[in-house]
């Protein structure tokens, strides 16, 4: 899952990114409305954390522009503006959730996971892939009932494939899900992560679609318990 953080306070933005990273969420930071738009023009995001007080405009105007352009990316407004009128205005402009500062990072991560889950049409955070069961919110994985420990990038790769719902994701799309825009990544790194996931969770978990990319090799059963 790849999140865009639109926040002009560098310390707050860095803290959010660090907190989301601990929950297995990759994030890029934009400190202005113009930078946020440039990020979205460069690549898609699974969700956005949007501050309203930006140095080159109001976040609400930016949100209005995105919705008018048909961008349905889930947006969570994160702001110090906490009046009922502010919240009503945010939802009227198209936000999917609204959280006021100060806030708790675990709550922010859970809210973002819920937004992406609903956008993907999943009613539950639990998904079953054959003998593999995944808790998308908690980042936990079991194989035949036994817990399996995944590295952070392995989890990000697995989550991206589950969220794709069986669609083929290209190497470029998966790189976008696993890494930030400012990270230098080796050409064979993705294949290494795929190999590790297959070794830990089964060779048939991920299917290579020659010339196109990767997809889940096992049908997902949402709502597993």
UniProtKB/TrEMBL annotation:
GO cellular component, one term: protein-DNA complex
Modified residues (4-aspartylphosphate): 51
UniProt DNA-binding residue ranges: 124-218
Gene Ontology terms, MF aspect: phosphorelay response regulator activity; transcription cis-regulatory region binding
Domain OmpR/PhoB-type: 124-218
Subcellular localization: Cytoplasm
Ranges for domain Response regulatory: 2-116
Keywords for the protein's UniProt record, in alphabetical order: Cytoplasm, DNA-binding, Phosphoprotein, Transcription, Transcription regulation, Two-component regulatory system
InterPro entries, sorted: CheY-like_superfamily, OmpR/PhoB-type_DNA-bd, Sig_transdc_resp-reg_receiver, WalR-like, WH-like_DNA-bd_sf
GO biological process, alphabetically ordered: regulation of DNA-templated transcription
PANTHER family in the record: REGULATOR OF RPOS, TRANSCRIPTIONAL REGULATORY PROTEIN QSEB
Stated name of the protein: DNA-binding response regulator
Organism of derivation: Melaminivora suipulveris
Higher taxonomy: Bacteria, Pseudomonadati, Pseudomonadota, Betaproteobacteria, Burkholderiales
